[in-house]
Amino acid sequence: MPYPPPQEPYEPPYEPAPAEEVVERTHPRLRIVRTVNALIHLVCALFALVLAAHILLVLGEANSANGFAHLVNEWSSGVSLGLRNLFTPDSVKLATFLNDGLAAVIWLVIGAILTDVITRIGAPGPRRVWYRRRRNTSYYG
Predict the structure, then answer these.
(1) I need a surface site. Which of 25, 28, 42, 54 has the fewest CB within 10 A?
(2) pTM for the model
(3) C-alpha 1: how far from its chain's center?
(4) CA pair distance 76, 107, nearest whole angstrom
């Protein structure tokens, strides 16, 4: 043989250990809180979307006799939180923008507040601790 044969390895070849599967179970109450929060976000975002669609239809001067425009107008009047006549400028477009725009923003704020309160009350586990940094009044120098 022209070349020497390869040397035998001193250690057996590396074989990775079989992978362990670690399954973390989510606390059932946490799943419920997440589901309720998702539903609240969905409903509030849907209401805000309907109001935004109504604003766009009014700004674009859509035909109010159209079935879709009529449906959006009816839905938006139902979720406007009674703010349809809060602002009364001379322009119908500006009035719709201000009144329905404010209602849409309020729906988004309501959704954020509700989900925060539900998470703080219903989520299991350690509670958040709020710390306030104290100002150092002594001077070392």
Answers:
(1) 25
(2) 0.69
(3) 73
(4) 12
Query: Which sign, positive or negative, has the C-alpha torsion 100, 102, 108, 113?
Result: negative
CA distance 35 to 13: 49
Does residue 30 contact residue 123 with C-beta atoms inside 8 Å? yes
Q: What is the mean pLDDT of the chain?
A: 86
Q: How far apart are CA 82 and CA 100, in angstroms?
A: 10
Which residue, chain included where needed, has tokens 């509670």?
Answer: 127
The encoded tokens of residue 31 equal: 């799943």
C-alpha to C-alpha distance for 141 and 136, rounded to whole angstroms:
13
- Amino acid at the residue 99: N
3-class SS at 18?
A: coil
User: Please, what is the Cα angle at 105 between 100 and 106, to 5 degrees?
Assistant: 95
- Measured CA angle at 93 (ends 110, 96), to 5 deg: 25
